[in-house]
Amino acid sequence: MSKNIRTHAVDYLFEAILSLKSQEECYTFFEDICTVNELLSLSQRFEVARMLRDHKTYLEIAEKTGASTATISRVNRSLNYGKDGYDMVFSRISDYKEDEFSEGEEIKND
């Protein structure tokens, strides 16, 4: 059973996020609101989801991102049984390619 995340506080947070107008503003806000590890964890999960959508194996994903198989499995479950949030966002940023990550860059934070 999932927790109800729809609260006034979460609404207010999302309103703040939606007010951001650039990537630089996102960096400024998220560096204040998240720890480095929290932000890296979010970006790691997002990269795992992208790689799963690209039909990469768990081994390939683990090697590239440093994510544990438990994290990969949780993200996979969200992709398959979640609310399609990943797909919604990926369809909007479909021009963002894997090669935009520098060669050898690893998103480690498990």
Automatic annotation (TrEMBL):
GO molecular-function terms, A-Z: DNA-binding transcription factor activity; sequence-specific DNA binding
SUPFAM superfamilies: TrpR-like
InterPro entries named in the record: Trp_repress, Trp_repressor/repl_initiator, TrpR-like_sf, YecD_YerC
Name by which UniProt lists this protein: TrpR YerC/YecD
Organism: Anaerocolumna chitinilytica
